[in-house]
């Protein structure tokens, strides 16, 4: 039987404040389907996680997130942190500036995403658990270190530039690359060297449509790592141009691994990019939790 009782978590600030309007656009489909719906507009950052951690499984069958990558990340972390281990099917309706998991699962626009949810077909997807000394975070999209974090941090400071901020931050990073010496662990292998970028992908695309991991499958128990050691500015430029269509995997200086666990140890405390959010630090270890989350597809 299809779930009929949905808790709908809407981030009113998602997608430049369009999420409530998007929910109102798709709500009639839920009404027509006879679904029972309780709407929870989030009141503060972190609220989505609190809701997902505390919703009563005896009155809710599924959770729908109306928001972007940040909202999905919060809800996934709430679900996986539940003490009662209760499981809810997860539906995602794109309403953010970045909708990465939505795109990977074919939920490209709100109406078709709502139809997918109401159809009731589910699929199990992998989740990456990132363990740091003081916290544990679950990711469904990316775990990034190095240039990917430096670019995200700079882009945040350039918000006034709008979407151009990512290109501006990327060009700055190419002009002034930062190289760090770390120990990179890949399953049973350990590599000590200088690196510029390490990014583990659960989804094929990331950010604003970059095809970073064209071979990634979200239910294969593995993440696809893109690794760049000490590269020249020209090589960096080549990399950032070719990740738009996934052709970077054929560049000789770009390494690609498929692993079920990985981690980074560094002398400095380097920031991480977890599902597009700047949070967490090295050292960390990460492992793929195979098929840990049920989503509507
Ligand atoms: N009521 C709220 N007030 C402030 N922040 C909120 C609220 N509800 C949710 N948030 C935060 O907004 C963040 C971004 O949300 P979301 O991903 O849905 O939208 P977005 O448009 O893609 O955002 P961004 O591009 O800023 O990441 C979430 O990580 C969440 O913590």
UniProtKB/TrEMBL annotation:
What Gene3D superfamilies does the record tag this protein with? 2.60.200.40, Probable inorganic polyphosphate/atp-NAD kinase, domain 1 (3.40.50.10330)
Q: Which GO terms describe its cellular component?
A: membrane
The Enzyme Commission number assigned here is: 2.7.1.-
Q: Which Pfam families match?
A: DAGK_cat (PF00781), YegS_C (PF19279)
User: Could you say which enzyme class this protein belongs to?
Assistant: transferase
The UniProt record lists the keyword Transferase: yes
The record's section on PROSITE patterns has: DAGK
Task: Enumerate the spans annotated as DAGKc domain.
Answer: 1-134
Instruction: Report keywords, A-Z.
Output: ATP-binding, Kinase, Nucleotide-binding, Transferase
A GO BP annotation: phospholipid biosynthetic process
GO terms of molecular function: ATP binding; lipid kinase activity
Q: Which InterPro entries match?
A: ATP-NAD_kinase_N (IPR017438), Diacylglycerol/lipid_kinase (IPR005218), Diacylglycerol_kinase_cat_dom (IPR001206), Lipid_Phosphate_FormReg (IPR050187), NAD/diacylglycerol_kinase_sf (IPR016064), YegS/DAGK_C (IPR045540)
Instruction: Write out the transmembrane intervals.
Output: none
Name used for this protein in its record: Lipid kinase BmrU
Q: Which organism does this sequence originate in?
A: Bythopirellula goksoeyrii
Taxonomic lineage is: Bacteria, Pseudomonadati, Planctomycetota, Planctomycetia, Pirellulales
Quick one: which gene encodes this?
bmrU
């Amino acid at each position: 039987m299809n779930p009929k009782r949905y808790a709908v978590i809407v981030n009113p600030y998602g997608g430049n404040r369009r999420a409530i309007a998007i929910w109102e656009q798709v709500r009639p489909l839920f009404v027509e389907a006879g679904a029972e719906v309780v709407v929870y507009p989030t009141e503060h950052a972190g609220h989505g996680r609190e809701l997902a951690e505390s919703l009563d499984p005896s009155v809710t069958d599924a959770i729908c997130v109306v928001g972007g990558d940040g909202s999905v990340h919060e809800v996934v972390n709430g679900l996986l942190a539940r003490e009662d281990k209760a499981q809810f099917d997860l539906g995602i309706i794109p309403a953010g500036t970045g909708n990465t998991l939505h795109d990977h699962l074919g939920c490209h626009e709100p109406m078709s995403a709502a139809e997918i949810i109401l159809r009731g077909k589910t699929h199990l997807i992998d989740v990456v658990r990132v363990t740091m000394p003081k916290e544990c975070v679950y990711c469904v999209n990316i775990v990034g270190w190095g240039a990917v974090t430096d670019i995200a941090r700079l882009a945040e400071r350039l918000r006034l530039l709008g979407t151009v901020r990512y290109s501006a931050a990327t060009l700055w990073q190419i002009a002034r690359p930062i190289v760090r010496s770390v120990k990179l662990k890949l399953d049973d292998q350990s590599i000590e060297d200088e690196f510029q970028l390490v990014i583990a992908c659960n989804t094929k695309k990331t950010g604003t449509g970059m095809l970073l991991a064209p071979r990634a499958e979200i239910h294969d128990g593995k993440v696809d790592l893109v690794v760049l050691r000490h590269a020249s500015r020209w090589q960096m430029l080549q990399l950032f141009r070719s990740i738009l269509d996934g052709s970077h995997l054929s560049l000789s200086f770009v390494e690609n691994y498929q692993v079920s666990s990985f981690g980074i140890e560094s002398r400095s405390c380097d920031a991480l990019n977890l599902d597009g959010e700047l949070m967490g630090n090295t050292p960390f270890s990460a492992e793929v939790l195979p098929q840990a989350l049920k989503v509507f597809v």
